[in-house]
Design brief:
single chain, about 140 residues, two-stranded antiparallel ribbon
Length: about 140
């Protein structure tokens, strides 16, 4: 068991070396949970699927089921690069069901944070529009 955990840790560290963008951060719920979540499977890279899933969760008003289904499809698409695409698709299905079973709290938190951010964006956008609107003379 220790060997498996160390291997997963190495995989998480190696897969993020040289990444500087948000899109390169490890897949997973954060902290030690990222070690348990596969970053890909035998040549398939799941980072874009994870990034899109996180973005979908953080979009105010998004539907969790739709986000999760798109996440699954994105992982399946990434499996085309795997040396064992059938096994990769099975792994993608496994992680889809893990997200369905355990992702509710993450979705709620992301929705709350996304809504707070969207509200700030709306206020600043209204200010820009009102500043740009021509003033009527009385």
């Amino acid at each position: 068991m220790l060997r498996l955990s160390a291997g997963l840790l190495m995989l998480a560290v190696v897969s993020s070396v040289g990444c500087t963008s948000q899109q390169c951060r490890p897949c997973g719920p954060g902290y030690l949970g990222n070690i348990l979540v596969p970053q890909g499977f035998l040549g398939a890279d799941f980072h874009n699927a994870c990034y899109g899933h996180d973005a979908c969760y953080a979009t105010p008003g998004s539907d969790r089921l739709c986000c999760d289904q798109q996440f699954h499809q994105d992982m399946v698409d990434a499996c085309e690069c795997s040396s064992h695409p059938v096994l990769c698709r099975l792994r993608a299905k496994q992680w889809y069901w893990q997200v369905r079973a355990h992702g509710r709290r993450s979705f709620r938190v992301a929705q709350r944070e996304g809504a707070a951010c969207a509200c700030c964006d709306c206020n600043s956008a209204e200010e820009v529009v009102s500043d740009a609107a021509p003033q009527q003379q009385q």
